[in-house]
Design brief:
The structure holds three protein chains of three kinds. By secondary structure, chain A is α+β, with helices and mostly antiparallel strands. Chain A has helices at 25-32, 88-95, 105-118, 124-131, 142-156; strands at residues 4-10, 13-19, 51-54, 57-60, 73-75. Chain A contains five helices and five strands. The radius of gyration of chain A is 17 Å and the shape is globular. Chain B is of the alpha+beta class. Classes of the chains: A alpha+beta, B alpha+beta, C alpha+beta. Chains in contact: A-B, A-C, B-C.
């Protein structure tokens, strides 16, 4: 099959790629751009490990054609780190045991990033609903709730990373 | 498995899209949200030479208030449906059903048109190519046996979308277009009841719009879905109830079921059971019995057919009582 | 707790950032120049003899570099020395749908997949066996010729005098329990990348390097050596990040060997990554199990005898099966005091994917039966379920009737804690219609005292090297698979050496670099690799102490290593106390509700403190340059420099082998079950049951777990919660659905691992019994809790609605069937003819594979044809 030139905007950088129409966004990210943070965990669009943001909206990279994404802004886990430092949610997932084996973590981070962008102070129910798009096999999700609450507090105080003023949780 | 190579066509105009469909008729698949088509293509259930990506067709996107009711473009995401203030106000049943589809991320991608057109599902069919080889294939794809009803010649794959029962209750119509003409049919007429050839759509046709009539606005209702997990899962049985009341009486009651037949079905004869001299509880039970008799679940999914039929009964009764209590 | 500075603190995993940023590499994330993709051809038949495989058409396809079949590597292997019954690619027979036939290595996935279609295989179809009780009757067409009646192994153990015990019982209950099959479903599908170096002398294929998603890199090295006829010294196995194992990567999986065979033939690097369906076929999960259980008790609830007959549907290969069937019997002991025990275990071969080890290996299904039956007895005797368990506690130190040594035993406290936290006394039986509480207990080994390779070598060895700048490098073969093994290792090293956690670097699981560790399975890593780390660190510490003591003019025993300083015990008051965070603990992470663990005071810790500390240390060193006679203390770096100057290189080695006293009895099969220490768990589950639909909701689980000592409370809680949650999955939503040898749900859409939507709050309560032999008293925490969850939920369902389920999972159809039977409602065939309160056999999915002349080719004696 002949390839076509596609301009993909990923993590604020434009990439011109020669790809086949049938290539999935996930394979293209992983194999053409070496952005291996997005994972393949299933083959039936059920696990969410490949979640990326497309124009700010979480979607499954395994369920999108790369060629269909031309002209859209794609953000992968590699684009979440802020100025080379951990984003609040990344740090909180580490601190609170939100990541064990870590394979599902990038997908969860993308889902949660969108949740916090649209709902800065989510209720527990809202968090649970958002997390229900992604499967995790290690944590039972419990410690993720703690991580998200911690990230919300850190974000709200604008003090992500400033441990001196980190909230004490009681 | 990788997707078999195809040529991707991404027209910007509906007319171009329809011309393309006509040109490659029979050898082309329409890609909307992709949440069913792409996994199916990876299982080699579909191997078209062309794929028509309709994402850029503005004409079939969005929710619009019209004289006759509401018009929803087929390429409107379920996320947009569940968050539409207009739909929440006028057609809450549709919103409730849309909210139960798969997971939030899937609903960011999946469209209402795709949900209406969702391929029927079966554990013997939605499997990889190598898996299907091991079962000798089935009537829906490449084989000559229906493993869930082996004596017959019919495919019993279950129609497993959540929004169509709500749409049926709301007497939705759909607009279907090809390059030269346009037709409008009630959704009820769209489904055939056959698992393999499950919808009345010609190869050159596209579902472009869904219409909710004004007459169905402000119906109360409830959608009850059987699933094992609280997210991700397709329905294993589900029922939608729409109710219009007048002075406390049931003026109009409509019930539809899904995931238990090869088509979503309006339960016939419901209206004849309402407003008779019996308790509301008793009436709900009789209606539930009717719904359960309409359901013909087979072993197409997890949970046994008898259980799924029983759940249609329980959920119908509950949904009727709940709608009545609103 | 405050005696420690690093241990006992909730410390983020040392590899957390690699995981939260996506920068960490798992095997499938790796690539090499010239990389080929391998795809495997799987059998469509459950049982067939291979007449002929023709690969010629596949080889002609553009992009195909090599095609390998069984003939390319004919040596058999298996994880157990007694079970070498597998071939990476089938030689003469295929034994399950999904068995491995051939592998294509090609330039890309698409070419490899197309080539698979061009491989022609000629079969003689054989009758297949799917039900273990049917399989045991087989006289012909055996799955393995050397296993009569398709019986992999059976054991018959009698301890004490069961007949006498039952004679003493006031109440005897017996029944059949069935637990259906579950699989690990780790989020990362298995992946292996293999490549050969060229030998500089001969120019031929030389050393092999394999990156693989494995829990057992050294076993992989050993099996690769067997199959490829290559010395182990010529094989390097590297374990990158692993995306979850749960036992599914605790043995050698076919793709790991196939990738190496293909790389050898192709002379190029080959990577194989399983599809999710292939992961299900590789399986090695928890076998579906029949448990015929009989328990006797006196009227006050003392157990007098237990008799269990267990049949496991092991699938087509031995895998860990012999160990699994032994664990099922052995771990009837060591939880309660049972004087008389009879066990008959049958591991049966069937034409299905092989079962193996899964979290709670061998104990989970029997524990479901036992703890359910215990509640049945309690109900008959009118005893509180907590009380009957208290009546049967061990009195450690003890040796159980089947030879297991129990030292630390936190079960009584676990029971008290969950009873208290759940409000058991006030709430049980009073939650109203359809809601209830259930209690159950479980336990697990902290590593097996006898390794499966039957050698006297240590189970874990750890090397430590310290450089002049005070950097500590720990070399361990232990495999981090998400459970926190690397973090545990660094904590123990830092605690012993009294240095900052940030000084410690862990190099793990690379057979060229790290000493042997037998792997991450049977919850052995904290206890065994932890003890080895402790000993290696102590050895290095001794060297530092001797040099530092000389400098400071005191005896080495007088020195204390702490807070990145080495100081004289009597001089503590004069030592500048470093502000800040010696432990590396994250101060923002003080725990919220549900915390039962005493926390060290960390409020003074801060980044600012850490910076001040560094400045202070710097100024101390500056000062030291002026004052050459340290009297009271040295910084860690100074002490290290002194030691290197004195000893030369600064390295230490520690190893761990379980003590003879912990290795169990002498009878046949006595090797499985003994452990140096057992963890204990007690749980209360609160559920509600919808009586019209049979749907069960778990609202909360209180889980108290005795882990000896929580080296890292956040990690311990994570492991306990994860175990409970996985147990909940097996209790409610997870089940491998079979039909005539076909797995009907080989994907994450239909194999339903719970989502966040229905996952309850789990309150983990840490109990610390401080084991005399564990590192700082620690035992396992990653598996033991799982087994209690299933019966706790079952017992709670009984409390809620009065039905006693004998078949797991408690799917809504099964629950509703039992509810309707109890109410004597009109019977509906909700469960394909299997009564979930009195199951007699495994249930198959409905429908038909074959009908008249239609369907796949199957032997006429095959069960699918018989119906």
């Amino acid at each position: 099959m002949t390839k076509q030139l596609v301009a993909l905007r990923v993590n604020r950088r434009l990439h011109e790629l020669a790809i086949e129409s049938s290539w999935l966004l996930l394979d293209t990210l992983r194999e053409q751009l070496q952005l291996t943070g997005s994972k393949r965990g299933c083959d039936d669009s059920s696990c969410g490990a490949c979640t990326v943001l497309v124009d700010g909206i979480p979607m499954l990279a395994c369920t999108l054609l790369a060629a269909s994404c031309e002209g859209r802004e794609i953000t992968t886990i590699e684009g979440v780190t802020e100025h080379g430092a951990l984003a609040a949610i990344q740090k909180a997932y580490g601190d609170w045991g939100g990541a064990q084996c870590g394979f599902c973590t990038p997908g969860f981070i993308m889902t949660v990033k969108h949740l916090l962008a649209t709902t800065p102070k989510p209720s527990e129910e809202k968090i649970r609903e958002a997390l229900s798009s992604n499967l995790c096999r290690c944590t039972g999700y419990s410690q993720m709730y703690e991580a998200i609450k911690a990230a919300v507090e850190a974000e709200q105080k604008g003090l992500a990373g400033d441990e001196k003023n980190a909230p004490s949780r009681t | 498995m990788t997707v078999k190579p195809f040529q991707l066509l991404c027209p910007r105009e509906l007319s171009d899209a329809l011309a393309t469909l006509e040109k490659h008729s029979g050898n082309i698949r329409v890609l909307a949200g992709g949440t069913d088509l792409l996994p199916s293509m990876r299982q080699r259930l579909f191997e078209p030479e062309y794929v028509l990506d309709i994402r850029q067709l503005r004409e079939i996107q969005g929710i619009r208030l019209t004289e006759q009711g509401i018009e929803i473009g087929a390429f409107t995401t379920l996320h947009a449906i569940e968050n539409s203030d207009e739909l929440k106000r006028s057609y809450p049943l549709l919103v409730e059903a849309a909210k139960t589809v798969a997971s939030p991320v899937i609903r960011n991608m999946a469209t209402i048109g795709g949900n209406v057109c969702l391929d029927t599902r079966c554990l013997w069919y939605n499997q990889s190519l190598s898996w299907r080889k091991s079962c000798g294939f089935c009537i829906k794809k490449d084989g000559n046996i229906c493993h869930v009803a082996p004596g017959g010649t019919k495919c019993w794959a279950a129609f497993s979308a959540d929004t169509p029962p709500a749409l049926l209750c709301l007497q939705a119509e759909i607009e279907i277009r090809n390059a030269s003409s346009s037709r409008r049919v009630t959704l009820e007429k769209f489904y055939t009841g056959e698992g393999d050839n499950y919808r009345r759509l010609q190869p050159d046709e596209l579902v472009t719009h869904i219409f909710l009539p004004r007459g169905s606005a402000l119906y109360g209702g409830a959608y009850r879905k059987l699933r094992i997990r609280g997210s991700i899962d397709y329905p294993l049985a589900a029922v939608a109830v729409a109710l219009k009341r007048k002075n406390g009486d049931f003026e109009d009651l409509r019930i539809a079921i899904t995931a238990v037949n090869p088509a979503p079905l309006l339960v016939a004869g419901v209206q004849s059971l309402v407003n008779r001299a019996m308790t509301r509880e008793r009436m709900a039970e009789e209606i539930a019995e009717l719904a359960a008799r309409t359901a013909k679940p087979l072993t197409t999914s997890a949970l046994t057919p008898e259980y799924r039929r029983e759940i249609i009964r329980v959920f119908t009764k509950r949904a009727v009582l709940e709608a009545a209590a609103d | 707790m405050s005696d420690f500075s690093v241990v006992g603190k909730p410390i983020p995993m040392i590899d957390a950032a690699a995981k939260t940023t996506g920068a960490g590499k798992y095997t499938d994330d790796l690539s090499l120049p010239g990389l080929l993709i391998g795809k495997i051809l799987h059998s469509p038949h459950p049982h067939a003899r291979i007449r002929h495989i023709d690969i010629s058409r596949a080889l002609e396809l553009d992009g195909v570099v090599a095609v390998v079949t069984g003939a390319d590597a004919p040596n058999p292997y298996g994880i157990l020395p007694v079970g070498h019954d597998e071939h990476a690619l089938a030689l003469d027979k295929v034994r399950y749908v999904g068995d491995n036939l051939a592998c294509v290595a090609a330039e890309d996935s698409r070419a490899a997949e197309r080539a698979l279609e061009l491989i022609d295989v000629d079969y003689d179809i054989l009758p297949a066996y799917f039900d273990p009780e049917e399989s045991m009757k087989a006289e012909r067409d055996l799955i393995h010729e050397n296993k009569p009646h398709n019986l992999e192994k059976d054991y018959h153990h009698v301890f004490g005098n069961p007949a006498q015990g039952f004679a003493q019982a006031d109440c005897t209950v017996e029944g059949r329990f069935i637990a259906n099959e579950v699989t690990h479903a780790a989020m990362e599908p298995h992946s292996t990348l293999a490549t050969f170096d060229l030998d500089p002398v001969t120019g031929n294929i030389g050393r092999l390097t394999v990156w693989s998603s494995t829990q057992v890199p050294y076993y992989l090295q050993h099996k690769l050596s067997l199959v490829l006829d290559l010395p182990m010294s010529q094989i390097r196995v590297i374990k990158p990040l692993v995306g979850g194992g749960f036992g599914g990567k605790s043995e050698v999986i076919p793709l790991e060997i196939i990738a190496a065979i293909a790389a050898r033939k192709a002379r190029r690097p080959v990577k194989i990554t399983y599809t999710r369906e292939e992961v299900c076929w590789a399986h090695r999960g928890r076998p579906r199990t029949i448990i015929d259980l009989k328990t006797g008790a006196t009227s006050d609830g003392r157990l007098t005898a237990v008799e269990a007959r267990v049949i496991q549907d092991g699938g087509a290969y031995c895998s860990y099966g012999v160990v699994t069937i032994l664990y099922s019997g052995a771990l009837l002991g060591a939880l309660y005091d049972i004087a008389n025990l009879q066990y008959d275990g049958y591991r049966v071969l069937t034409n299905k994917p092989a079962c193996g080890a899964m979290r709670g290996h061998g104990t989970v299904n029997v524990r479901f039966a036992f703890e359910s039956q215990l509640d049945e007895i309690a109900a008959k005797l009118n005893l509180d379920p907590a009380e009957i368990r208290r009546q049967n506690l061990l009195r450690p130190p003890a040796i159980t009737v089947n030879g297991l040594r129990v030292q630390s035993y936190g079960l009584p406290e676990c029971i008290e804690k969950v009873v208290e936290r759940s409000g058991w006394a006030e709430r049980k039986g009073r939650l109203g219609k359809g809601r209830g509480l259930g209690l159950a207990c479980s336990h697990y080994v902290s590593g097996a005292a006898n390794s499966i390779i039957r050698s006297d070598m240590p189970h874990s060895t750890v090397n430590i090297k310290i450089d002049r700048d005070g950097g500590v490098v720990v070399y361990t073969g232990a495999s981090e698979i998400g459970q926190g093994s690397d973090t545990m290792t660094s904590q123990i090293a830092a605690e012993v050496l009294g240095c900052l956690l940030s000084r410690v670097k862990v190099v793990a699981a690379d057979t060229d670099l790290t000493p042997i560790d037998i792997g991450s399975y049977s919850s052995r890593v904290t206890f065994m690799a932890g003890n080895a780390t402790l000993r290696a660190a102590q050895e290095v510490k001794r060297q530092i102490a001797s040099a530092a003591a000389q400098k400071m003019g005191c005896a080495p025993e007088e020195l204390i290593f702490r807070d990145d300083l080495v100081f004289r015990r009597d001089a503590q008051r004069g030592v500048p106390r470093l502000e800040g965070e010696p432990s590396g603990e994250n101060p923002s992470r003080q725990r919220s509700r549900g915390r039962t663990h005493e926390q060290a005071n960390t409020s003074q810790a801060s980044v600012a403190g850490r910076v001040e500390g560094q400045i202070l240390r710097g100024s101390l060193q500056q000062k030291r340059k002026e004052d050459l006679t340290p009297k009271d203390f040295m910084t860690f770096e100074e002490a290290v420099v002194a030691a290197i100057d004195f000893h030369g290189a600064l390295t230490g080695t520690g190893s761990y082998a379980p003590p003879a006293a912990a290795r169990g009895g002498k009878y046949k099969g006595a090797g499985v079950g003994p452990s140096p220490a057992y963890s204990y768990s007690a749980q209360v589950a609160e559920v509600s049951v919808d009586e019209e639909t049979g749907q069960v909701t778990v609202h909360k689980v209180w889980a108290a777990h005795d882990c000896g000592r929580a080296l890292n409370p956040v990690a311990v809680e994570g492991q306990v919660i994860g175990s409970v949650w996985m147990g909940m999955g097996q209790a409610l939503t997870e089940e491998m659905i079979w039909k005539d040898g076909l797995l009907m749900n080989p994907g994450l859409l239909e194999y339903r691992s719970p989502s966040a939507a229905e996952s309850p709050q789990v309150e983990a309560i840490i109990v610390e019994s401080v084991d005399p032999e564990g590192p700082f008293g620690a035992k396992e925490c990653s598996e033991g809790a799982l087994a209690a969850t299933i019966p706790a939920i079952s017992n709670a369902i009984y409390d809620a609605v009065g039905i006693r389920l004998h078949e797991a999972p408690f799917s809504p159809e099964r629950v509703l069937a039992a509810l309707r039977a109890k109410k004597a409602a009109k019977p509906l065939n909700l469960t394909e003819g299997v009564d979930p309160t009195r199951p007699t056999r495994f249930r198959e999915h409905g429908g038909a594979l074959c009908f008249k002349q239609k369907g796949p080719e199957r032997h006429e004696l095959d069960a699918s044809r018989a119906r």
